[in-house]
Write a structure and sequence with these properties.
- The protein is 19% helix and 14% strand.
- The chain is α+β, with helices and mostly antiparallel strands.
- It has a single domain, classed as Ubiquitin Conjugating Enzyme, CATH 3.10.110.
- It starts with 12 loop residues before the first helix and ends in a 17-residue tail after the last helix.
Length: 159
């Protein structure tokens, strides 16, 4: 796997170690220094093979709050480059992801790699490409505000 990694400032020692160890086939960890918000990076990947998304490409933006690792990183599908967020019952059109480990079930033991794999797993098990109920209202109301400010209700383990 090719790991194209260019750093911004503001990463902690732990985050730098996680970034250095990141090795997931078909995922590329990268950052464009010209538009690099402090403490954030991007992961590009193709949809999981044998899934509804196998022919699509995606870009995740990962931003580490100052309280990381005690709180989860902010992870969204970054649509600013023209790549879409997937149509999925747990992914909003503004890129926000409703995933328990990005909320109540976050643990400091989780790594960038484990969270990215969880997002890929979310895509690989999807049976129908649809937006979440209330997507339009939520996305318009919240806009590009951090998903860490949203109180998620995790009640659907079937997708």
């Amino acid at each position: 796997m090719s790991n194209n990694l260019e750093f911004c400032s503001s990463f902690t020692r732990r985050q730098l170690k996680e970034i250095a160890k990141f090795s997931v086939p078909n995922f590329t960890l990268d950052q464009n220094p010209t538009d690099c918000p402090p403490g954030s990076l991007r992961v590009s990947f193709s949809g999981p093979s044998d899934s509804l998304y196998s022919t699509e490409n995606f870009l995740l933006r990962i931003r580490f709050p100052t309280t990381h690792p005690f709180t989860s990183p902010e992870i969204i599908f970054d649509t600013s480059t023209g790549l879409p967020s997937p149509f999925h019952p747990h992914i909003y059109s503004n890129g926000h992801i409703c995933l328990s480990i990005l909320g109540d079930e976050w643990s400091p033991a989780l790594t960038i790699q484990s969270v990215v794999l969880s997002v890929a797993s979310l895509l690989s098990t999807c049976a129908e490409k649809v937006r979440p109920e209330g997507d339009t209202i939520y996305s318009e109301r919240v806009g590009d505000r951090s998903p860490l400010l949203t109180s998620w209700l995790f009640d659907d383990d079937t997708v």
